[in-house]
Amino acid sequence: MKILITGHKGYIGSHLFRALEDGTNVVHGIDLKDGNDILHNLPDSSYDVVFHMAALPRVQFSVEQPSYTFRHNVYATSVLLEWAKNHNVKRVIFSSSSAIYGDDDFPSSPYGLHKILSEKECQLYSQIYGLDTVCLRYYNVYSKDQEYGGSYSTVISAWMEMVRRGLPLRVDGDGEQTRDFVHVEDIVNANIFCMDYKDRFSGSCYDVGSGQTFSLNDIKSMILKEIDAHFITAPPRAGDVRHTEMRDNNLIKLGWSPAKDFATEIKTYFKEITNE
């Protein structure tokens, strides 16, 4: 199978790229990290499947730079879809986000809004052009190798980095906000499942989470059982939703299922840090 991954050097994209390079596929990637912008550098050839993972994914960054992130998250997706239609791509698998839900069924950030706009365009392309598309709404993705990215980092990668540096771990707000954490390997498996699925998706959207939620205070308690750590409190961040939880299990009904247990993984990660 001939495959294109946009954002193949990003966090999830790089994991997917490695998983698909198994000798049975021809896998190509395009990434802004190489100076290859989707708006100008899409290849002049056809692919069986395109995984569209390229995006500026941080909620807080989208709050600070809404029009800039719109260009990379919405307009770039529109350009990709038109290219896919014109190059006879069989299926586009779009990386969406649970951020579309917000706290009251409306996005709480530009990032969430951008994702729902792109979902609608994916559905439109299936409807009027016959391009098969599917949108996967990721919840909070994590793994031991998730890189720290400064102030825009996810809570797990940020806390792991602070432990390594011997610095306090920051809790934004009261710590009672909850998240559905899903391991990056489960995300990769969901994408590959959708690639191999025999029937058409026709613009369908699916939640991809673990089905379990944990508050920041829950995770704090897990960490303190494994290591000594100091926590500090900071104000809530603009654009952050209060609670996330996988809303449907329709992808599970089709045959995919998450395999990683968050509590087990986290305890292992922080215990291992003390032995590094």
Span of the ends, CA to CA: 40 Å
Strand order of the largest sheet: 2-1-3-4-5-9
Spans with pLDDT under 50 lasting ≥5 residues? none
Count of DSSP helices? Answer: 10
Largest sheet: 6 strands, parallel
Structure summary, number of beta strands: 11
The helix/strand series, from N terminus to C terminus, equals EHEHEHHEHEEHEEHEEHEHH
What is the average of the pLDDT values? Answer: 94
Rounded Rg: 19 Å
Strand content: 15-25%
Structural class: alpha/beta
Overall helicity: 40-55%
Overall spatial form: globular
Characterize the structure shown:
- The chain has 276 residues and is α/β, with parallel strands linked by helices.
- The protein has helices at residues 11-20, 38-41, 59-64, 66-86, 110-129, 155-165, 184-196, 216-226, 250-254, 262-273, and strands spanning 2-6, 26-30, 49-52, 91-97, 132-138, 140-142, 169-172, 178-183, 204-208, 213-215, 231-234.
- Strands 2-1-3-4-5-9 form a 6-stranded parallel beta sheet, sandwiched between helices. The chain has a 3-stranded mixed beta sheet with strand order 6-8-10.
- Helix 6 runs parallel beside helix 10 and helix 8 (216-226) packs across helix 10.
- The N and C termini lie far apart (40 Å).
Topology:
Elements: E1 2-6, H1 11-20, E2 26-30, H2 38-41, E3 49-52, H3 59-64, H4 66-86, E4 91-97, H5 110-129, E5 132-138, E6 140-142, H6 155-165, E7 169-172, E8 178-183, H7 184-196, E9 204-208, E10 213-215, H8 216-226, E11 231-234, H9 250-254, H10 262-273
Parallel strand pairs: 1-2, 1-3, 3-4, 4-5, 5-9, 6-8, 7-11
Antiparallel strand pairs: 8-10
